[in-house]
């Protein structure tokens, strides 16, 4: 199996189980509060880490390039309460223009 | 709640339509980027069909395109989707049928359909949830397919600045997840850990390492902002046979 299919299979199976666990197995029994609190923090933690690496990392180096300019533009668009799709478009357009310059 | 929400799949589908358009366009972006990250056209589409969780799919593609290993991509995506365990539990009372139907219906629960199905006070309408989920599912898969097909025409996504779509999307998603002081602290810690590790470990690993910041959840069990914690009273009202 190619690496791509390995990714698709494992993440697909894992996600199907994660989504189905409550409705199928646990039914109405809630998770413990500590476990719930930890799981609830996983998403913000990982998204922040992804934000940093996707903006600044190239392989093992930290670089400031067009992506950072795109992110700055995205932050401004978000502050102006633009819809997410507009935010993404602004970021992409900014990065593309910075690369042209 | 001010006005009572209309229940049922039709109402859910209608409520989510504007989001569906956006999700479709995200799907196009994902299709283009995933193919460029080496996931391959058919695999990218199957990824959406089985996983149907955009943030984790973007995360996996992001890790791969940054030169990370497939193992790092898998772990990052799975950790990101761990939140669907508590989300699934929160809607369990609204999803009925034999176990295999519940498993299938549960796949339509994503962040946006979860929000549309929310009636407030920890109650969910299964109809709204599933109607919204179905619209989003079709939009996501259709979008991804178009993206995969368009990828060959577009060529290098960097020319269009599409690589900057990753951080911009993660920022937008992150802001939606910061629902408490604790979430903010955890996010800051996660960002700091990832930043510190970039030059020390292979790509993808900093993201996995950052997940230790969720241990902050062990401190302060006060339930502020614990979004998906279903409280005890949720399951009882409205229960019983149809």
Q: Any idea what the radius of gyration of chain A is?
A: 19 Å
Helix count of chain B equals: 11
**How many distinct domains of chain A?**
2
Binned, the helix content of chain A reads: over 70%
Approximately how much beta-strand content do the residues of chain A carry?
under 5%
Structural class of chain A: mainly alpha
Largest sheet of chain B: 2 strands, antiparallel
Quickly list its features:
heterodimer, A: 101 residues, mainly alpha, two-stranded antiparallel sheet, 4 helices, extended, B: 242 residues, two-stranded antiparallel ribbon, 2 strands, globular, disordered C terminus
Please specify the SSE layout and strand pairing:
The complex is a heterodimer of chains A (101) and B (242).
Chain A: H1 3-26, H2 33-56, E1 57-58, E2 61-62, H3 66-79, H4 84-100
Antiparallel strand pairs in A: 1-2
Helix pairs in contact in A: 3-4
Chain B: H1 9-36, H2 41-51, H3 54-65, H4 70-81, H5 84-91, H6 99-106, H7 111-117, E1 118-120, E2 123-124, H8 126-154, H9 165-177, H10 181-197, H11 205-210
Characterization of this structure:
- Chain A is mainly alpha-helical and 101 residues long.
- Chain A folds into 2 domains: 1-61; 64-101.
- Chain A is built from 4 helices and 2 strands.
- Chain A has a two-stranded antiparallel sheet.
- In chain A, strand 1 and strand 2 form a beta hairpin.
- Chain A starts with a helix and ends with a helix.
- The relative contact order of chain A is 0.07.
- The mean pLDDT of chain A is 90.
- Chain B is mainly α.
- Helix content of chain B is 62%, strand content 2%.
- Chain B is built from 11 helices and 2 strands.
- A two-stranded antiparallel sheet of chain B has the order 1-2.
- In chain B, strand 1 (118-120) and strand 2 form a beta hairpin.
- The longest helix of chain B has 29 residues, at 126-154.
- Chain B is globular and about 50 Å long.
- The chains are: A mainly alpha (101), B mainly alpha (242).
- Chains A and B meet through helix 1, helix 2, strand 1, strand 2 and helix 3 of A and helix 1, helix 2, helix 3, helix 4 and helix 5 of B.
């Amino acid at each position: 199996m190619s690496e791509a299919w390995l990714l698709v299979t494992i993440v697909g199976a894992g996600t199907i189980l994660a989504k189905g666990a409550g409705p199928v197995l646990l039914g109405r029994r809630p998770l413990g509060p500590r476990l719930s609190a930890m799981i609830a923090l996983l998403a913000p933690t990982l998204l922040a880490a992804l934000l940093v690496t996707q903006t600044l990392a190239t392989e093992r180096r930290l670089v400031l390039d067009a992506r950072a300019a795109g992110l700055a533009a995205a932050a401004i668009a978000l502050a102006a309460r633009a819809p997410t799709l507009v935010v993404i478009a602004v970021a992409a357009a900014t990065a593309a223009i910075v690369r042209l310059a | 709640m001010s006005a009572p929400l209309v229940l049922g799949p039709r109402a859910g589908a209608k409520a989510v339509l504007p989001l569906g358009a956006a999700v479709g366009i995200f799907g196009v972006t994902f299709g283009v980027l995933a193919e460029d990250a080496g996931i391959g056209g058919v695999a990218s589409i199957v990824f959406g069909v089985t996983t149907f969780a955009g943030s984790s799919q973007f995360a996996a593609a992001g890790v791969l395109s940054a030169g990370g290993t497939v193992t790092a991509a898998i772990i990052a995506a799975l950790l990101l989707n761990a939140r669907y365990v508590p989300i699934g539990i929160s809607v369990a009372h609204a999803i009925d049928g034999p176990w295999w139907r519940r498993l299938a219906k549960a796949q339509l629960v994503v962040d946006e359909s979860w929000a549309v199905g929310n009636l407030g006070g920890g109650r969910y309408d299964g109809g709204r949830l599933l109607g919204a989920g179905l619209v989003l599912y079709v939009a996501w898969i259709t979008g991804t397919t178009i993206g995969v097909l368009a990828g060959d025409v577009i060529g290098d996504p960097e020319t269009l600045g599409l690589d900057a779509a990753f951080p911009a999307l993660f920022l937008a998603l992150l802001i939606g997840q910061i629902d408490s002081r604790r979430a903010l602290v955890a996010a800051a810690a996660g960002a700091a850990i990832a930043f510190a590790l970039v030059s020390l470990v292979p790509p993808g690993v900093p993201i996995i390492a950052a997940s230790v910041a969720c241990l902050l959840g062990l401190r302060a069990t006060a339930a502020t902002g614990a979004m998906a914690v279903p409280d005890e009273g949720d399951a009882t009202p409205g229960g019983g046979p149809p």
